[in-house]
Amino acid sequence: MELTQKEKAEQLQHTVLNGSVEELSKIYNTLGYVEMSAPALGLACRFRGLDMVKALVEKGATFDFPSTEEIELTYHCHIGEKHATYRENYRTNYSLYLLKSYRGGPKGARCLQGMKFTKTAKRDDGTSLSFLADKERIAVLHFLLEKKEKLSFQPEEMLFYAIFAKDMVIYKELKKCAVVLLEKRAYAMTEGTLADGYWFEFGSLTGKLADKDYINVMQQLFIELSEKPFRFTEKMFDITQKRFYNIDIFSFFLTHFRQEKMKKFHIIRGLIDENAVDALAVVEGEGWLATPKKRDEMIAYASQNKKTEALAWLLDFKNRTADIAAEQEKVDKKLMRELNAVPGSVTALKQVWNFRKQENDTLIITAYKGARTEIVVPEKIGKSVVTAIGKGVFAGDAYKPSATKEQIERHKKIRKIILPETITYIGKGAFHELSSLEEINIPESVKEIDENGFFGCCHLRGLALSEKIEKIGKGAFYNCRKLEAVYIHKDMREICEGAFYGCASLKELVIPPNIEKIGKEAFSGCNSLRKLIIPGTVKTIEENAFASCRKIGEVYLSEGIQEIGKCAFYACQNLKSITIPKTVKKIGMEAFADCRNMEALCICEGVQEIGEHAFIGCNMLKTVTIPGTIICVETYAFSDCKNLESVYICEGVEELNAGIFWCCNALREVHVPASVQRLISMEYGNIVYEVFGACPNLTVICPKGSPTEAYCKEKGFRFMWSAVD
Questions:
Q1: How far apart are CA 145 and CA 307, in angstroms?
Q2: pLDDT given at position 342
Q3: Which of 80-89, 340-349, 511-520, 617-626 has the highest mean pLDDT?
Q4: pLDDT tier, 400 (very low <50, low <70, confident <90, very high otherwise)
Q5: Which of these three, 132, 167, 188, is where a domain ends?
Q6: What is the pLDDT of residue 261?
Q7: How far apart are CA 460 and CA 483, in angstroms?
Q8: Residue 449 has what DSSP assignment?
Q9: Cβ burial, residue 339 (10 Å; 0-12/13-18/19+)
Q10: What local confidence, expressed as pLDDT, does residue 335 receive?
Q11: Between 20 and 30 A from 420 (CA), which of 4, 175, 339, 716?
Q12: What pLDDT is attached to residue 657?
């Protein structure tokens, strides 16, 4: 019997570890094409040396392999990020077995899935192979460099991971061969974006470094970047902050990362939190504490948070450097100006608001400094009109790292806000986590509510959105748990990702007829919704859009909808019935999974695809008809439907995948037409999943002489011939 590709790969690896070069060549000739030769080639690089590597390459071995989900499942490797739109596509890199690294390889690397970095490899005769000596590894490396295109070997990636593995033998040999970092890696570490997968991995790798290795590794990377400073982000600061007790690491951080992006006083507060007084002395030298106002804010912060060592250092710094008399005189002059100002003047309003002028000469509010719980935002400040509420105006440290703990606590007590009719824009996180806010008006003039605008306003109850609103940003009303009703105007086109996620009290929702897309998780967790009508203008219902809306009992999908995304109605446990209109092309993976009280399902002729696990766990379904426009029914589509009794598959369906009726214990009959040509089994975790597997009461009804009859005979399933017209 011919070996499977998995068995071929395993035999090839076994021969690499246990056989001679001659035996390997003979076995490779017998095996023929091996789709997954990369692990064997990697093991040869790690334990056997140049002759074995050459023998493998001569027979066609390479570090490349197909990027399919089947490969990933079969070989437990990584075929790359599935969200490739915002992260680079990493794959398991078996060439890295050449590196002198143990216990899982470089910590934080995203390309080592399925690899084991051991010091020795056991053989069948009880002996062990040792990790290759440096001289042998260098010989292998030069051969890989010579054949890099043929082998899909990337020396630039080997260089990068050699630095983190602290393998100076391989690193120095690569440098002798003029190997440099990939340009996109260098860009990610110095210039890139937050959505860059290489930057994400760089943060993960640096975060896993031991303190004793941090400076050496980072210095080596700095040299590779031609001494260009590393990018600074808040995430990188968070990763590194725990090391700042080590003054050498903190000094390195300040001098090797781009300071212009640093939020200096956010960093200083972090140092105060750690009582890192040696590090405070470093920022003194950088001039970060030269401003009396900011210095005194840091003293107040240390006092409020009972950071006694940091407080003592800051007070000593003030005593050493401050001109107390000059500072007091300045404060007194400011106080006199305020006393002479009339209420409502620009001077008075500056005590409560921070603001700045925009290009169109209108004002944007940038911060609220007051202590009131009921607030009226001014329509004008001086002669300039206020048209925008900026990023995080009333938020805490999530959007305003400079906000003090006292300011954050004051903001959380705000109960009511009145916005003027001049406002056109509400910025990112403007009212983020105002946990006591109960009432706010959205003026008719507002055109945009940016992402997370009202995130976590858990006492907000009702909102009427302006007719002029063109966009509600991502997570705009995320986790507004007491929000009961929302009126969405008819001119809106899209409800963005997570816009009303977790609005557990939302009972009334009317989706107007011009909406074209309902974004990912838009209404996920809206547990009080009971009825939903989705108009035909909506083309796409994205992933998890209505997931876990546990009380929703009625959903009406209008003709015109084209795609129901992954988990769109997952765990809508009170949903009794659903009709999928003929315009829908695809029912996504787990789209209606765990809708455990669904009694009736109508899939109209015209639907083309039923995704994996689409109706898994719909326990109250008793009968299902699959129209002939569906070419293929994907794996586990109706598995665990405990009360499903009969299924009618219409002429036109061509393929039935593994486990589609798995554990449907009550299933008595499945009518399969002559058009079905492929019935596919799948092995996973030592279990073989058959099309009709784990259905003890099932009789398959199929045409005489059909592929379905042959499948049932081979697998031992009960069947009977369908009636002949």
A1: 55
A2: 54
A3: 617-626
A4: low
A5: 132
A6: 79
A7: 5
A8: E
A9: exposed
A10: 44
A11: 339
A12: 95
Tell me the mean pLDDT in the region 528-548.
93
211, part of any domain: no
H-run or E-run covering 304: helix 292-304
| C-alpha–C-alpha distance, residues 79 and 92, integer Å | 7
Query: Residue 326's CB: how many other CB atoms inside 10 A?
Result: 10
Is 687 contained in some domain? no
Q: What tokens were used for 606?
A: 């015209």
Q: Is 694 exposed, middle or buried (0-12, 13-18, 19+ CB in 10 A)?
A: middle
| Inter-residue contact 100 to 167 (CB < 8 Å) | yes
Angle at CA of residue 722, ends 718 and 725, nearest 5°: 175
Range with the poorest average pLDDT among 309-323, 460-474, 565-579, 661-675: 460-474
Residue 293 domain flag: yes
| Residue at 115 is within a domain | yes
With a cut of 90, say whether residue 716 has pLDDT above it: yes
570's enclosing H/E stretch is none
Q: Which residues contact 168 (CB under 8 A, 6 or more apart)?
A: 162
Amino acid letter, 270: G
* Rounded average pLDDT over 274-279: 85
Q: What is the pTM of this model?
A: 0.54
Say if residue 339's pLDDT is above 80.
Answer: no
Beta strands 380-381 and 384-389 are antiparallel
Instruction: Tell me how far the alpha carbon of residue 119 is from its chain's centroid.
Output: 34
Distance CA 28, CA 32 (A): 6
Report residue 451: phi and psi, to 5°. Answer: -60, 140
Angle of the 211-224 helix axis to the 197-208 helix axis, nearest 10: 140
Query: What helix, strand, coil percent values describe the chain, rounded to 5?
Result: 30, 15, 50
662 CB contacts (<8 Å, ≥6 apart)? 636, 639, 640, 689, 693, 694, 695
Query: Using N-to-C axis directions, what is the helix angle for 292-304 and 308-321, rounded to 10°?
Result: 160
700 vs 711: CA distance, rounded Å: 11
Span 536-546, average pLDDT: 94
DSSP 585-611: -EE-TTTTTT-TT--EEEE-BTB-EE-
Residue range of the domain that includes 23: 5-132
Q: Which helix (H) or strand (E) segment is 553 a member of?
A: none
Proportion of the chain above pLDDT 70, given as a percent? 94
Q: In the beta sheet, which residues pair with residue 486?
A: 463, 509
Cα–Cα dist 349/363, whole Å: 13
Query: Taking 80 as the threshold, does the pLDDT of residue 399 lie above it?
Result: no
Helix (H) or strand (E) holding 188: helix 183-190
Question: Which element (helix H / strand E) includes 56?
Answer: helix 50-58
Buried b (16+ CB within 10 A) or exposed e, 2-39: eeebeebbbbbbebbbbbebeebbebbeebeebbbbbb
Domain boundary among 132, 158, 190: 132
At a CB cut-off of 8 Å and minimum separation 6, what does 76 contact? Answer: 113, 114
β-partners of residue 504 are: none
How far apart are alpha carbons 32 and 46 in whole angstroms? 24
Q: What is the pLDDT of residue 487?
A: 76
CA 525 to chain centre: 19
Torsion from C-alpha of 80, 85, 87, 93, nearest 10 degrees: 20
CA atoms within 13 A on the CB side of 97: 30
Rounded CA-CA distance 536/581 in Å is: 10
Separation of CA 352 from chain center: 38
Domain count, the chain: 2
- Distance, in Å, from the CA atom of 431 to the CA atom of 446, rounded to the nearest integer, reads 15
Rounded CA separation 38/23 (Å):
19
